[in-house]
Amino acid sequence: MSTSSAARAPVPLDPSRSAGSPGVHAALSVIEHMVTQGPVALGDLARELGVPKSTLHRVCTVLVDRGWAVRDEHGRFEPGIRALALGSRANDLPIITGFRRRAGALLERHDETVCLAVLDTDDSVFIAIEETSQPVRLQTWVGRRSPAFCSASGRVLLAAREPDAVAAQLGDGRPLVSPTGVRMRSIEQLLATLERTRRDGYAENHEETAIGLYTVSVPIANAAGRALAAMTMCVPTSRMRDGRRERLVADLKDAGRALSHDVAWLPTYDAKRL
């Protein structure tokens, strides 16, 4: 079983927001692009980020010299060893260590894949995964992205935002179509779904991000009630027997409350792109 999601379109730099340190913003945009989109040529970077090619050439030269990027035989840039080494520190983050402890209990009880996700602009991104021992499972990985409006984790995190902010972000006329072809009729339908998520304390996904997959997600919040992340269980629909949904939801909500208590002191993770 596998998921599919379209790569998120790069966001051009806004000069008015990066005027104070344009070189730093350009370097971070290059790294973000390499991580989320894969190897990229200098000309493509310039076009997609809206930054002069001469500026990006200087930025990429420094990134290569410092080990944050490498240039392949085709002249494309991709993450270097220092960027890769930075990712290895993720396992030491308090929210990750706390997640592994709480996810382990869920695995013992249900033996289904458990994931931790955060919101990155319009996408939900997995940052930690504890996998089931069963051979039929969701094939996914850390860094996997899904459109937030249709994924259970994304809906949980969007539901923590003000409806006007969600409407401004996603109600620009773009089609709200999931990777499996499920279409939301309007932004109002999405807002109604998010209101139900706030009321129930969890969100569900029935084959919207992958055929044959059911997912359920709960928010992980700090002491101020701000959403930090979403904890999600991923279950093949073939294993969703009568009465199992209720047990999964109840246990996941308990685990989410426990993890929220563990990380109550953490600030929010808010990824913004300039």
Textual characterization of the structure:
The chain is about 40% helix and about 20% strand. Strand 8 and strand 9 (about 215-220) form a beta hairpin. The protein starts with 14 loop residues before the first helix and ends in a 12-residue tail after the last helix. The longest helix has 19 residues, at about 245-260. It has two domains: about 15-85, Arc Repressor Mutant, subunit A (Orthogonal Bundle); about 95-260, GAF domain (Beta-Lactamase, 2-Layer Sandwich), CATH 3.30.450.40. With about 270 residues, the chain is α+β, with helices and mostly antiparallel strands. A six-stranded antiparallel β-sheet has the order 5-4-3-10-9-8. A two-stranded antiparallel sheet has the order 1-2. Strands 6-7 form a two-stranded antiparallel ribbon.
Q: Note the gap between the termini.
A: 35 Å
CATH architecture of the largest domain: 2-Layer Sandwich
Q: Approximately how much beta-strand content do the residues carry?
A: 15-25%
What are the segments in which pLDDT stays under 50 over at least 5 consecutive residues? Answer: 2-9
The biggest sheet, with number of strands, parallel, antiparallel or mixed sense and barrel status, is:
6 strands, antiparallel
Number of domains: 2
What is the element string, with H for helices and E for strands?
A: HHHHEEHHEEEHHEEHEEEH
Summed up, the helix count is: 10
Helix/strand-derived category reads alpha+beta
General shape: globular
| CATH class type of the largest domain | Alpha Beta
Side by side, the strands of the main sheet go 5-4-3-10-9-8
CATH topology label of the largest domain:
Beta-Lactamase
**How helix-rich are the residues, as a percent range?**
40-55%
| The CATH superfamily title of the largest domain | GAF domain
